[in-house]
Amino acid sequence: MHLEASDMKPAINRLKRAQGQLNAVIRMLEEGSDCRTVVTQLSAASKAIDRAGFSIIATGLEHCLASEDPTADRADLEKLFLSLA
Q1: Are 72 and 1 in contact (CB under 8 A)?
Q2: d(CA 14, CA 4)
Q3: Residue 36: band (very low, low, confident or very high) from pLDDT cuts 50, 70, 90
């Protein structure tokens, strides 16, 4: 299943946001910031990554359904989806 870069724009934006959040977590740890602040920022980064993954899988499923790809294996798609759970 190949994905078009233009279809991945929302996922790319989420991953860039997560990248910024992870950079902030690293900086906070290096500076000895408050634990709660670090964990809150880390949680936000984790959610952004999860949402990007779900977006990628949803777009892939949408493409498979639209093209009625005979090679699309439901078990493989389900395994991808569950890997984010």
Answers
A1: yes
A2: 16
A3: very high
